[in-house]
What does this fold into?
Amino acid sequence: MHRCCLYVLLLLSALIPLVPCEAAADSWPQPQTKEVFSESREYFVRVIPGESLGDTIGFAGAKNGRYATAEFYRRGHDRSYSLVTQVDLLNPMAPVEFFVSNDGHLATLDNWHNLGYGKVVSLYGSRGELVRSYELSDLFQADELKEFSQSVSSNPLEDRPYLYQARPENSSRHRQERR
It folds into this structure.
């Protein structure tokens, strides 16, 4: 009888980690250095993750350090790329996504492990200067913000509706003003 209980306990201890359970925390892979080219291939930007996890929501007390950096490159006459500038971004760890325009401007979207918090859209000029940044409250009305789901460290905007809704013709504020 004692041996049977031991086998049951061993079996349960092996199976319990396989049982799906709901957790309130997010799971994110470590941010990676990433390059993105403009469509014309005249420019690219390399984003190097920061080390300031303590400056993200939900990680108070964690290490504070340098923020993510962006290296701006431009293609020369000899078809090689030269560094134009390197700047600190507004992202403590890394943007979730970023894009480079054909004139070398950079747009960063969201924050690693903090979707929807902080500067969710930041625009930089081709020489790395910050042009403008936005928080969700700059893009949506308070009643619209209440509709977004939240987790421990993120305010996920399922399937990134802000890329669609943030355009003036799609916002309720714009629709009301047009009436």
Summary: Residues 1-25, 152-156, 158-179 have pLDDT under 50 and may be disordered.
